[in-house]
Specification:
heterodimer, A: 280 residues, mainly alpha, B: 267 residues, 12 helices
Chain lengths: 280, 267
């Protein structure tokens, strides 16, 4: 049911696979172009997003600073290194507001109003369409703030290009993990329309990622490594930058990312089999 | 008297309505878990500080009680009236309410109270769960203190409600009233004691905070609930009462002015 397009927009049979990917890039450009054009109508919103982002970041930094102010280093992390964790969090938060929230929080509405039927009829992979159709500029200030904060911390710590590359390398599985978790929870709405707010719970659980995971007591540390993998989202990338790339962590992060994205795919197919559409 | 009866009935209606949405409501409760993370972080700080002589932090049990209390205070004083008012003003649903012989303020208040009642059983279960998981978080059992803490909680809820109601009144002038409220929420994050007890703040920030309404929304009620008597309690109550009076007067003024500007269908 999730095959590549087979009419009008379909590419010629030769080199079909490769062509299909280009087709998706073209779609992405169209999707995001229209989304940005729509948001450009509300420029005041963007200014507000910038102000909110700055104040929010100030609050996060203050929350972290209070530990150091009282002479305590959470998890043994120095101030700039802990700021680096916060930078990863801010960046991922920006990613969520830019791409995840505007798309995935809409799935429940599609189910509720029956418009999911239309999505399934489109000659595009439905998971792809549901995950990429919208783009919100609200998260951009956070993306930039995350980068700026990381730049400051890297400068303070005297990190080199190799360290930054290691961090970036581990941020990719983090993005995939975040997306997959969010998508799996949103897919639940096929069965339970009333629990639309479950992604808010996820988002709030992930707030633990503002702090290095070693700063938590043992039970919470286990929870954040094995149950809700917050550790892999922010601590592991920051650790790769400050303490060098460890193969164990890299393998763990890649394995988790691969497992979760395959699981999200499988779960989506499973959910669709249980979807009794609004029109049938 | 008549008003009380009306309030009771409206609250009951909302309570019955919220019971239908229990699952959703419980998820909302669960999305307020941040205080438990902070509890873990500060308890760990306290545990490690207890080994070395760093006096300010060296009481993990204090953090356990404080952050459990913060969780409860935040759950009990949660307010979203601005979204309701904004929706009603923008969509014109306020118009039929204006015809009724009851100021819509009371309707919004009753809807919050009803929802809060539906939340309580789940909160009680969660609290017992935390007592069991983190034994040091158990509040000291002092019946004499209970009414004081309850009164403080009620006052904190009322202050938060009236504050947000003031911002909600701006919906008569702008469509982005809740953005202004968001900004005040960020100040709340900074100054309310949500991140840490106020006595761990730098002295200047703490001194500044005590003159703003924010510590009275979280820090003061949480300390009382957790069984501590925060320093400067008397002055705190006065400052709190002053803010409550100020925001009530402002809400009344804005309501009268705003109503004159209100021009939805049928008004």
């Amino acid at each position: 049911m999730l095959e590549p397009p087979s009419f009008s927009a379909s590419p010629p049979a030769t080199g079909r696979r490769q062509h299909w990917h280009w087709h998706r890039f073209r779609l992405l450009r169209l999707f995001w172009g229209s989304a940005v054009a729509a948001e450009a109508e509300y420029r005041l919103n963007f200014a507000l997003a910038v102000v909110t982002c700055i104040l929010n970041l100030g609050g996060s930094l203050f929350g972290l600073f209070l530990f150091y102010h009282n002479g305590y280093r959470p998890g043994g992390w120095d101030w700039p290194a802990a700021v680096l964790v916060l930078a990863c969090y801010t960046f991922l938060d920006g990613f969520s507001s830019t791409l995840l929230a505007p798309n995935l929080n809409r799935i429940v509405r599609h189910v509720q109003e029956g418009t999911l039927d239309f999505v399934l009829l489109k000659p595009v992979d439905a998971q792809f369409w549901l995950s990429t159709r919208m783009l919100s500029l609200w998260g951009v200030p956070n993306l930039l703030a995350g980068l700026a904060l990381a730049g400051w911390a890297a400068h303070r710590l005297g990190l080199g290009a190799a360290d930054l590359a290691a961090g970036a390398l581990l941020l990719l599985p983090a993005l995939l993990i975040l997306y997959s978790l969010w998508f799996i929870l949103s897919t639940l709405s096929i069965w339970f329309v009333k629990v639309f707010n479950i992604t808010f719970v996820l988002r709030n659980l992930l707030e633990a990622g503002r702090f290095p995971v070693d700063a938590f007591p043992r039970r919470l540390r286990l929870l954040f490594t094995f149950v809700v993998p917050v550790a892999f989202l922010t601590t592991v990338p920051a650790q790769a930058m400050t303490r060098g790339l460890r193969l164990g962590w890299l393998a763990g992060a890649l394995l988790l990312a691969a497992t979760l994205s395959l699981a999200s795919r499988a779960f989506w197919r499973f959910a669709l089999r249980h979807y009794s559409s609004a029109s049938s | 008297m008549r008003l009380l009866r009306q309030l009771r009935i409206l609250t009951g209606v909302q309570y019955a309505y919220m019971l239908e949405y229990r699952a959703e409501l419980y998820l909302w409760v669960l999305s307020g878990v941040m205080p438990f993370f902070l509890m873990g972080l500060w308890m760990e700080a306290g545990r490690l500080a207890a080994a070395a002589p760093a006096a300010a932090l060296a009481d993990p049990a204090r953090f356990a009680r404080y952050f459990l209390a913060v969780f409860l205070v935040r759950q009990i004083t949660l307010v979203w009236v601005i979204y309701d008012v904004e929706d009603d003003v923008v969509k014109g649903r306020l118009s039929p309410q204006l015809l009724q012989p009851l100021n819509p303020f009371w309707r919004y208040l009753a809807s919050h109270l009803g929802e809060r009642l539906a939340r309580l059983p789940f909160l009680a279960i969660l609290t017992l769960g935390v007592f069991w998981l983190v034994p040091t978080s158990r509040f000291p059992w002092e019946p004499a203190r209970l009414p004081v803490a309850a009164a403080m909680l009620a006052a904190a809820f009322l202050l938060r409600f009236v504050m947000q109601y003031c911002f909600a009144m701006l919906a008569f002038w702008t469509e982005r009233a809740n953005a202004i409220d968001d900004l005040s929420f960020l100040l709340y994050l900074f100054l309310s004691g949500f991140l840490a007890p106020l006595d761990l703040f730098p002295a200047t920030v703490r001194e500044f905070a005590t003159w703003t309404p924010f510590p009275y929304l979280v820090y003061l009620p949480a300390e009382l609930l957790a069984g501590a008597i925060p320093p400067g309690l008397g002055r705190g109550c006065l400052v709190m009462a002053a803010w409550l009076a100020l925001f009530t007067a402002l809400a009344l003024l804005l309501w009268r002015r705003g109503l004159r500007r209100y021009s939805a269908m049928g008004a």
